């Protein structure tokens, strides 16, 4: 049998994401094996482990999965902190860990080891996609981000990518992670941007609760000619986008955007079984499931980790987001992102991201940081 | 005159506008027992609080054996030889009677910061504590929790703690209040013993006139925070201020 | 001899003695008694938390000081190791320097907090520490260049202490550096625990108890309360930092969620209270029980929920994903049923 | 021997400085506003920040008001307050979503009726919840802070989990009623309309609480009961009843706070109330325990301070509250206008 | 004579595992002052607290005004007209003197005439009307505790050592106040160590030892008989 451990934060604040991720993984395995849940006659067994969103527990769970349960491959987790704690375990046990959907760059960067692969996007991919979507000659952009690694790295990557498009950054605003009142930040941004001429945008990088876009929009940035922009988000969060029709940005996934057989199957099956569309982490989970089956088939079994790694290096496979490819250098999956514009549509109580254009993987110059 | 142990000089405290102790200058000598009397709220306890440091003085000074201690904290004053028992019982309620006294002796012997020795191996503390408990007749209750003692016994323990400290200046604030008639003499005898030690001085706040008559060498009267009289017992008791403001009409004539 | 080691503080209950012995034996022989990585990890975690909880008991149970900043000190020790190991490279010198620096930083910080805020009312002190601890957690995430931010730090410890160091077999178990590492954790925790036990039973410990009871009177019999409290805070902070260092050595990862979060603070509180405040042995019982529950409650619930699958509603409530709710209920029930902690309860039974 | 003095204690005159000292906390808000003006320098920015800071302060006050009763007066450290805030928000938002037609219409009357119903429903549910909470969880631990912390944190976890069970684990996003969307601009300063509503609700609540506590003995009974419950009963009061009543009121106010806060955030999560707890405790502490006036001033100070500091130096915004609390406790160890002495 | 306002029959009370009251029988006649005397620790305070309901009687009956109150909650007994001055005074130290007094009135605001009367007896309370009660002197707290119990008309007063810490002048005004109360028809059960007060005020007396009432009779009889005093309380009270 082939044992796959899904080590992820089933309980805790990200419960909802975790559930999506797990459903996605299962659907991926199902699709790839044609519903048999077997690869070359070997049964696939999925072992679930709850990290409780705590790095130490996540680490212990992964040790248990590799050490006691003898899992061949592990998938997870949701939180970057937990993921980073887990990375050395994979190296120690010499087994493959597919990171999905934790986003920190350093997972495939400074803290990377050869046993780590990631199907999820990383922060840079997000930021660079947005830069490609928003940038352009003569555009001036201010950024608003949370004051911690995710926010700062995101802005740094965004800024770097923006230079190539000819746009410029006028102001970077960082606020504490749990900020709820954005008046001061907005005032600072308005003051800075008020003097600038030409096309002006405010790019918001925000993770977790809170709704800076809505709050700042209510302060009427159009008085200063400023347009708000931000990346895509999970379905529930798109409600906040309803107040911002016409807003542009880049997103990782929205179920109506990708056009390919895998996504068609995913959307149809998901509606059938759960009466709701698939979301970010369903797509991500599925991509990891598909990658596993593909890799095991290619390596001819899951026992030999070295063979698996060889097989996965540079491997390209089909996912709900189209073709993905593990980059040989840092094992990060290269993938398509989507430039969208928000529209109000009848029957939907959220702002719908409508595709403006696909940003192919070769359009984004994602830096390699594990050297 | 014998040696002056404690002295207050124009000692004053104000609470808002209320002058609770008003420029009291007075000195206390070795081998002497001074009774402090005065109506309720005259400032007796507050005067004690100023001397022992619970309340900072607004102005004036307190000198202990010539040293100005006005700015020192409560603990430092205690270590220099000022001991105090409280009017309203104030003990360590969920420790045993014995432990209460041991703590006091440990403090006197400066063993509080012994971090790495076992407390129970200090038998000298236990022995000294037992001796004191015998003197106040609490030796049968050493293992009882203080919170379970009846009021009268708590008052006795209060006195035991003070004796355990063995200070130069003893300050008693109504030590026998709430003590039954057969118990009070035990405490009064103890106080008499302390007084007999010519190195110490005793300050005693009391409302019971017979106690004052039998023990005091000298009486000072506080009234509205000010020193209203100071002299030998007979003379002070007869004075107008005491008769009028303090004694009121004798009970039986009502 | 044994009584001396325990500083004369005997368990004072046959059941308690038995339970403590079982725990001691299990922890001492964990690598050989139990199979697999999970139990060993659990055992190490139990050792570390016993120490951490005991250091908190010194403060809370004996000193009567409610502080929410204990994880902060724990974190300082852990980050000490992490930073030393990242910057000095793997090696025992880094471990020594890291734990020393961590403990020192903890003492200095405790001294500052202590002298400044032990003067305010107890309940305000608690709230100040809560606010300071949450601010420190945020600062750690903001200064990500040094601390690794939310994501934390991964680093290497001396090879001797990792499973890469294979040292042959003993009693049918493969002995590796990991087991060596475990015994480092175990021995250090045991020694420090005995030291704490000595401190609470010293004259100093008695003064702390007196201060907890009635600080006003303690001052009046000549004890400088602020100093005693500050020293207690510093001692407890230093021990917590050392526990943090051990945790960092064991885990080889340090992040805000593992060392600084308010959740851990609450876990510590619960362990102290379940075990029994002001008893030290309570720390042993509380930490062991809680860590076992935290590790195995979910598995247990999983099997319980499967076993009751036929019934209505019950399997839903027993769903492993609802384990947090049961943890909350555990919080409430333990305070209900063990108002004086398990140790207190066991001793009462003997008394009556 | 001196002559008999008169029978009155000596009262010296109280200096002007001492008398002013009592009024100082009330002056802090205007002083801070003026200081802010000079520090910021741009009138329109200053106006925006001041007005929104005051409004934010009002919302914090609404959330802290219940805690002033339960923590300040009754001396119960109730982390469950955070859960009540969340429950209030979920109930209120569910009502608003159910009344989608009313909230979607551009009629002030319909919108406000919907909000009113949401508030009533939220307060009823959290009040009832508070009643159960008091009976089951808090009652055995009056007077024991540590146990209160554990037990109420346990309650907090359970309630948050139950929210997950009832409403699912997702955050719920929603939109405010039509007429409360957007902002009004005045002299170059934009001000969210919703904040005006918060100011109104806050003011009404402040006045109502003050009246109730001034005109009735309830506050006295609770304060006396915390110090010496048996004595209060021995005077003839049914202390349990009063405690339960006050606890219910405190929980219901948390529910109100939850609805107001949820409407502000436009997204609600089970953990939203828990997140506010540190801030809410800070407000209750700097105000002085048990003081509605103190909590009010404290909340306004916090709101203003956050905005000013975030504008002037965002890095410091994080510590501004702690700095404020520290400064106030150094100045007044019992908080600004304590009604109850902290132990 | 009418039936007594209060009577205890074979009342036993346990505190924790200790058996403190071991069958107390006691009667308080209407309109009289009954003294409850005895050495430290014999159970006087426990008796009062049992009547008030702060300790629950394990067995036996407490009849108040013809009604069995043994199982009533504390507050119901108070509202039934029992006023209580506890041994530790039970002052609410965070509240002002005025607020303490206001709490003394369960059924309405403080009556103006009543206030005048109380402030006449205890002028210090008037001086510190708006101050925090915790800051009062020991004797002032004692006065406040007594005045608070009298803030409203009650039928029966249970008073535990009211004169401890009071200056002689105040002792006599307090005694006068108690007499006036009695004059208004109230009954009083008074625990006292100060024998001259007991003698001056008491109509009847009950002496306790070891958790039982061992002697009851008129106060005058006890006051005159030194041998009896010696036997009951270990010491002649005059000697002190
Ligand atoms: N901390 C304080 N704040 C305000 N007033 C105070 C304080 N302490 C004492 N007082 C006032 O000072 C006066 C003197 O009080 P003190 O306790 O010294 O009286 P006393 O002479 O000991 O009386 P008693 O015989 O009743 O014990 C009282 O009127 C009291 O109200
Ligand atoms: N909380 C308690 N726990 C245990 N024992 C107690 C408690 N309270 C009182 N006792 C015991 O009950 C007995 C009677 O106490 P009580 O206070 O009624 O005596 P008393 O006659 O009022 O004495 P005193 O004149 O000293 O006030 C005492 O022996 C005391 O030790
Ligand atoms: Mg006094
Ligand atoms: Mg008594």
From TrEMBL, chain B:
Q: Which Pfam family, an example, fits this chain?
A: BCA_ABC_TP_C
Residue span(s) of domain ABC transporter: 6-249
Give the residues annotated as coiled coil.
none
* CDD domains, sorted: ABC_Mj1267_LivG_branched
Q: Which domain of life is it from?
A: Bacteria
Signal peptide (from-to): none
**Could you confirm whether the keyword ATP-binding appears in this record?**
yes
Q: Which PROSITE patterns match?
A: ABC_TRANSPORTER_2
Q: Does this UniProt record's set of keywords contain tRNA-binding? A: no
One Gene Ontology MF term: ATP binding
Which InterPro entries does this chain map to?
AAA+_ATPase (IPR003593), ABC_AA/LPS_Transport (IPR051120), ABC_transporter-like_ATP-bd (IPR003439), BCA_ABC_TP_C (IPR032823), P-loop_NTPase (IPR027417)
Q: What's in the keyword line of the UniProt record?
A: ATP-binding, Nucleotide-binding, Transport
The name of this protein is ABC transporter ATP-binding protein
UniProtKB/TrEMBL annotation, chain C:
Q: Which UniProt keywords apply?
A: Cell membrane, Membrane, Transmembrane, Transmembrane helix
Could you tell me where this protein is found in the cell? Cell membrane
Which organism's genome codes for this protein? Answer: Leisingera caerulea (Phaeobacter caeruleus)
> What stretches pass through the bilayer?
14-34, 95-116, 122-140, 180-200, 226-254, 266-293, 323-343
Regarding the membrane, this protein is recorded as: Multi-pass membrane protein
Q: What is its main location?
A: membrane
Pfam families from the UniProt entry? BPD_transp_2 (PF02653)
What InterPro entries does UniProt report for this protein, alphabetically? ABC_transp_permease (IPR001851), LivM-like (IPR043428)
Q: Which domain of life is it from?
A: Bacteria
User: How is this protein named in the record?
Assistant: Branched-chain amino acid ABC transporter permease
From TrEMBL, chain D:
Query: Main subcellular localization, coarse class?
Result: membrane
- Membrane-spanning parts: 20-40, 46-71, 83-102, 108-129, 149-167, 194-213, 241-264, 276-304, 316-333
Against Pfam families, the record matches this protein to: BPD_transp_2 (PF02653)
Membrane protein topology class:
Multi-pass membrane protein
Which keywords annotate this record?
Answer: Amino-acid transport, Cell membrane, Membrane, Transmembrane, Transmembrane helix, Transport
Q: Which family does it belong to?
A: Belongs to the binding-protein-dependent transport system permease family. LivHM subfamily.
Identification of the protein by name: Branched-chain amino acid ABC transporter permease
Name the species this protein comes from: Leisingera caerulea
From TrEMBL, chain E:
The source's domain of life comes to: Bacteria
SUPFAM superfamilies xrefs: P-loop containing nucleoside triphosphate hydrolases
Q: Say yes or no: keyword Nucleotide-binding present.
A: yes
The ABC transporter domain extends over 6-235
**PANTHER family, from UniProt?**
ABC TRANSPORTER ATP-BINDING PROTEIN, HIGH-AFFINITY BRANCHED-CHAIN AMINO ACID TRANSPORT ATP-BINDING PROTEIN LIVF
Q: Which Pfam families match?
A: ABC_tran
- Name the InterPro entries for this protein: AAA+_ATPase, ABC_transporter-like_ATP-bd, ABC_transporter-like_CS, BCAA_Transport_ATP-bd_LivF, P-loop_NTPase
Record key words, sorted:
Amino-acid transport, ATP-binding, Nucleotide-binding, Transport
Species source reads Leisingera caerulea (Phaeobacter caeruleus)
**What is the designated name of this protein?**
ABC transporter ATP-binding protein
Please give the family membership noted in the entry.
Belongs to the ABC transporter superfamily.
Q: Which GO terms describe its molecular function?
A: ATP binding
């Amino acid at each position: 049998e082939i044992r796959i451990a899904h080590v992820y934060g089933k309980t805790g604040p990200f419960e909802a994401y975790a559930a999506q991720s797990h459903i996605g993984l299962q659907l991926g395995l199902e699709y790839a094996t044609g519903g048999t849940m077997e690869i070359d006659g070997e049964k696939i067994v999925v072992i679930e482990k709850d990290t409780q969103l705590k790095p130490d527990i996540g680490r212990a769970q992964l040790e248990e999965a590799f050490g006691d349960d003898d899992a061949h491959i592990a998938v997870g987790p949701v939180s970057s902190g937990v993921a980073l704690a887990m990375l050395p375990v994979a190296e120690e046990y010499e087994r493959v860990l597919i990171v999905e959907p934790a986003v920190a760059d350093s997972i495939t960067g400074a803290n990377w080891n050869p046993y780590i692969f990631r199907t999820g996007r990383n922060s840079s991919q997000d930021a660079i996609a947005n830069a490609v979507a928003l940038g352009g000659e003569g555009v001036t952009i201010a950024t608003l981000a949370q004051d911690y690694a995710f926010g700062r790295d995101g802005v740094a990557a965004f800024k770097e990518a923006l230079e190539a498009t000819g746009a410029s950054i006028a102001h970077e605003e960082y606020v504490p992670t749990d900020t709820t009142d954005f008046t001061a930040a907005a005032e600072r941004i308005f003051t800075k941007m008020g003097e600038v001429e030409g096309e002006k945008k405010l790019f918001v990088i925000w993770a977790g609760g809170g709704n800076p876009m809505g709050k700042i929009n209510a302060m009427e940035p159009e008085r200063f000619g400023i347009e708000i922009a931000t990346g895509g988000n999970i379905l529930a969060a798109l409600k906040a986008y309803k107040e911002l029709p016409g807003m542009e940005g880049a997103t990782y996934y929205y179920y109506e955007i990708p056009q390919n057989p895998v996504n068609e199957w995913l959307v149809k099956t998901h509606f059938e079984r759960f009466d709701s569309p698939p979301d970010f982490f369903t797509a991500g989970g599925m991509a990891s499931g598909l990658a596993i089956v593909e890799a095991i088939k290619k390596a001819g079994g899951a026992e030999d980790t070295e063979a698996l790694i060889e097989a996965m290096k540079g491997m390209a496979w089909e996912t709900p987001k189209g073709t993905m490819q593990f980059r040989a250098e840092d094992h990060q999956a290269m993938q398509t992102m989507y430039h969208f514009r928000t529209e109000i549509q009848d029957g939907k109580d959220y702002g719908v991201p409508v595709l403006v254009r696909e940003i192919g993987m070769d359009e984004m110059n994602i830096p390699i940081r594990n050297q | 005159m014998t040696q002056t142990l404690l002295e207050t000089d124009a000692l004053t405290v104000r609470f808002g506008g209320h002058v609770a102790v008003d420029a009291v200058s007075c000195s206390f000598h070795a081998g002497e027992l001074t009774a402090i009397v005065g109506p309720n709220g005259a400032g007796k306890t507050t005067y004690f609080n100023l001397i022992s440091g619970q309340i900072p003085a607004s102005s004036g000074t307190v000198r202990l054996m010539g040293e100005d201690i006005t700015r020192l904290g409560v603990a430092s004053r205690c270590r220099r030889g000022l001991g105090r028992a409280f009017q309203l019982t104030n003990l360590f309620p969920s420790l045993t009677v014995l432990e209460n006294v041991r703590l006091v002796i440990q403090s006197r012997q400066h063993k509080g910061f012994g971090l790495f020795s076992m407390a129970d191996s200090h038998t000298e503390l236990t022995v000294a504590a037992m001796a004191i408990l015998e003197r106040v007749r609490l030796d049968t209750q050493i293992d009882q929790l203080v919170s379970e003692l009846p009021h009268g016994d708590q008052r006795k323990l209060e006195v035991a703690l003070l004796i355990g400290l063995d200070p130069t200046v003893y300050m008693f604030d109504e030590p026998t209040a709430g003590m039954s008639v057969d118990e009070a003499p035990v405490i009064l005898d103890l106080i008499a013993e302390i007084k007999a030690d010519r190195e110490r001085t005793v300050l005693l706040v009391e409302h019971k006139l017979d106690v004052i008559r039998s023990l005091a060498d000298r009486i000072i009267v506080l009234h509205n925070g000010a020193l209203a009289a100071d002299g030998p017992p007979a003379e002070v008791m007869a004075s107008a201020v005491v008769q009028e403001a303090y004694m009121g009409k004798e009970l039986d004539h009502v | 001899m044994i009584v001396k080691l325990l500083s004369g503080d005997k368990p004072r209950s046959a059941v308690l003695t038995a339970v403590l012995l079982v725990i001691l034996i299990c922890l001492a022989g964990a690598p050989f008694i139990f199979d697999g990585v999970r139990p060993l990890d659990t055992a190490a975690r139990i050792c570390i938390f016993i120490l951490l909880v005991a250091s908190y008991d010194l403060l809370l149970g004996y000193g009567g000081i409610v502080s929410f900043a204990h994880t902060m000190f724990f974190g300082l020790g852990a980050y000490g190791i992490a930073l030393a190991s990242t910057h000095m490279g793997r090696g025992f010198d880094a471990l020594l320097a890291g734990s020393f620096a961590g403990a020192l930083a903890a003492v200095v910080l405790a001294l500052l907090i202590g002298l400044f805020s032990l003067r305010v009312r107890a309940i305000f002190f608690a709230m100040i520490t809560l606010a300071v601890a949450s601010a420190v957690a945020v600062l750690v995430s903001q200064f990500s260049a040094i601390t690794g931010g939310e994501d934390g730090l991964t680093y290497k410890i001396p090879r001797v202490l990792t499973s890469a160091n294979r040292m042959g077999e003993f009693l049918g178990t493969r002995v590796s550096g990991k087991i060596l590492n475990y015994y480092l954790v175990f021995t250090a925790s045991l020694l420090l625990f005995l030291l704490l036990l000595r401190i609470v039973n010293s004259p100093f410990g008695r003064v702390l108890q007196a201060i907890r009871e009635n600080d006003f009177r303690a001052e009046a019999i000549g004890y400088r309360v602020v100093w005693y409290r500050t020293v207690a805070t510093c001692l407890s902070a230093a021990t917590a930092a050392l526990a943090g260092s051990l945790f960092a050595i064991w885990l080889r990862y340090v992040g805000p969620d593992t060392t600084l979060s308010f959740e851990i603070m609450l876990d510590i509180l619960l362990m102290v209270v379940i075990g029994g405040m002001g008893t030290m042995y309570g720390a042993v019982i509380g930490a062991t029980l809680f860590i076992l529950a935290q590790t195995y409650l979910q598995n247990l619930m999983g099997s319980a929920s499967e076993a009751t699958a036929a019934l209505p509603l019950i399997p839903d409530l027993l769903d492993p994903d609802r384990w947090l709710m049961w943890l909350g209920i555990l919080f409430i029930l333990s305070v209900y049923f063990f108002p004086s902690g398990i140790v207190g309860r066991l001793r009462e039974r003997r008394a009556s | 021997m001196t002559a008999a003095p008169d029978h009155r204690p000596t009262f010296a005159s109280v200096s002007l400085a001492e008398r002013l000292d009592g009024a100082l906390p009330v002056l802090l808000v205007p002083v801070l506003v003026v200081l802010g003006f000079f520090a910021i320098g741009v009138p329109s920015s200053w106006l925006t920040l001041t007005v929104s800071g005051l409004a934010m302060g009002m919302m914090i006050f609404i959330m802290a008001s219940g805690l002033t009763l339960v923590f300040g007066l009754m001396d119960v450290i109730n982390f469950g307050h955070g859960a009540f805030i969340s429950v209030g928000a979920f109930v209120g938002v569910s009502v608003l979503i159910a009344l989608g037609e009313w909230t979607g219409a551009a009629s002030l009357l319909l919108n406000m009726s919907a909000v009113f119903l949401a508030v009533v429903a939220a307060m009823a549910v959290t009040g009832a919840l508070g009643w159960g909470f008091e009976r089951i969880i808090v009652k055995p631990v009056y007077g024991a802070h540590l146990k209160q912390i554990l037990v109420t944190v346990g309650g907090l976890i359970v309630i948050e989990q139950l929210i997950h069970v009832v409403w699912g684990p997702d955050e719920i996003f929603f939109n405010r009623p039509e007429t409360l969307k957007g902002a009004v601009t005045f002299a170059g300063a934009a001000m969210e309309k919703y904040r005006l509503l918060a100011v109104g609700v806050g003011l009404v609540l402040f006045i109502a609480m003050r009246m109730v506590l001034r005109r009735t003995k309830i506050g006295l009974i609770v304060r006396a009961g915390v110090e010496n419950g048996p004595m209060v009963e021995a005077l003839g009061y049914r202390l349990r009843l009063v405690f339960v009543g006050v606890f219910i009121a405190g929980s219901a106010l948390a529910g109100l706070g939850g609805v107001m806060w949820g409407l502000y955030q436009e997204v609600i999560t089970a953990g939203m109330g828990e997140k506010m707890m540190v801030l809410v405790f800070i407000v209750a502490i700097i105000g002085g325990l048990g003081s509605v006036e103190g909590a009010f001033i404290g909340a306004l100070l916090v709101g203003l301070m956050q905005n000013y500091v975030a504008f002037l130096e965002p890095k410091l915004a994080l510590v501004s509250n702690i700095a404020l609390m520290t400064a106030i406790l150094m100045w007044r160890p019992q908080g600004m206008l304590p009604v109850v002495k902290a132990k | 004579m009418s039936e007594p306002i209060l009577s205890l029959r074979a009342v036993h009370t346990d505190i924790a595992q200790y058996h403190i009251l071991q069958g107390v029988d006691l009667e308080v006649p209407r309109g009289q002052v009954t003294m409850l005397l005895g050495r430290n620790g014999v159970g006087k305070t426990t008796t009062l607290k049992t009547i008030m309901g702060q300790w629950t009687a394990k067995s036996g009956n407490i009849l108040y005004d013809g009604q069995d109150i043994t199982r009533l909650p504390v507050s119901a007994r108070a509202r039934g007209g029992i006023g209580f001055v506890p041994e530790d005074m039970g002052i609410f130290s965070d509240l002002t003197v005025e607020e303490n007094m206001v709490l003394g009135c369960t059924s309405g605001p403080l009556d103006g005439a009543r206030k005048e009367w109380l402030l006449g007896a205890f002028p210090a309370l008037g001086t510190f009307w708006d101050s925090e009660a915790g800051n009062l002197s020991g004797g002032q707290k004692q006065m406040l505790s007594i005045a608070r119990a009298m803030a409203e008309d009650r039928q029966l007063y249970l008073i535990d050592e009211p004169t401890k810490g009071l200056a002689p002048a105040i002792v006599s005004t307090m005694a006068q106040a108690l007499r006036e109360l009695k004059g208004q028809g109230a009954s009083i059960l008074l625990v006292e160590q100060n024998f001259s007060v007991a003698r001056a005020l008491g109509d009847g007396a009950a002496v306790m030892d070891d958790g039982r009432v061992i002697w009851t009779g008129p106060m005058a009889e006890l006051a005159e008989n030194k041998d009896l005093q010696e036997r009951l309380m270990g010491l002649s009270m005059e000697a002190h």
